[in-house]
């Protein structure tokens, strides 16, 4: 009996080792700029958790959840360990539907090492453990959550004696997010009433855009990039990512060939053993999306005059069979260098660094990494 238990324990250990260390992604070319940009920056990184509470707005009832008188945002802040080189740009990361803030941790750690303050929260009603179940419609409240987070971090930075004193540069604020977090990013950057004018750059990762007409993006001029995979089963590439070049003046589109939707989130690393991580992603989302989302609800976002498209067709997870996707860890390597380079191209205090990042994104990526393509609109 003891030998059997010992054997099973050893087998379990071997299985865990294989799952966590096996099937590693192909490395970037040695001595390449891509490999260099993938390395952590010079700053040591600190991380702390914080419960952000917005007492000015309630959380609505949801299923068997009665709601709350406030918006509770369980968050994490990543920052350089020293304030000596600050103040630093602030980036707000937004997670996808039925996901959480940990999905963007790999991006936050990289950015913080390069001299950024990054904040991510679990949104009250769209995160994986939302009371009453994740409710996609609560995305309409998330732009105000982002504004509240910006207000809070800026106020902390301006408070003598606070641990965040002197850390945030209010003139350099960016937003990014995956999937529904990409939609949140688009809303807070461009919506005529939900947007925050302090935002200086926005990067949507596989965010839906079929909700918006060209008119929607006329309400603000914000440097914008869309990062997407061309086999995305959840937010189809041809109807969401590709049209941004026509809809958004000056926009940039970076496409990763054979990249899935699900693998953009850091928590999808273990799914590298699958043919396509969207098999799990589709199952999770379809099992958690309330049937009422098929009923008209886009009036909660805005009006046709504001650029909201009420004639959206549901294209969620219609692809069968799913094509083979690239290793999620490789996809996250690519995402990390793209996201950090984009914000460096906008927020670095050095003109040389900004220009170098822009050149890398527009030409260097395609030369060094065969699965990446870049397009832009002047």
The assigned CATH architecture is 3-Layer(aba) Sandwich
The largest β sheet comes out as: 9 strands, mixed
Q: What is the straight-line distance between the termini?
A: 71 Å
Give the integer mean of the pLDDT values.
Answer: 94
The stretches of 5 or more residues where confidence is low (pLDDT under 50) are 11-18
Residue share in β-strands: 15-25%
Overview of this protein structure:
- With 378 residues, this protein is an alpha/beta fold.
- It has a single domain (45-376), classed as Alpha/Beta hydrolase fold, catalytic domain (Rossmann fold).
- The chain contains 10 helices and 9 strands.
- It has a 9-stranded mixed sheet with strand order 1-2-4-3-5-6-7-8-9, with helices on both faces.
- α3 (105-113) links the parallel β3 and β4 (117-122).
- It is globular.
- Mean pLDDT is 94; it is low at 11-18.
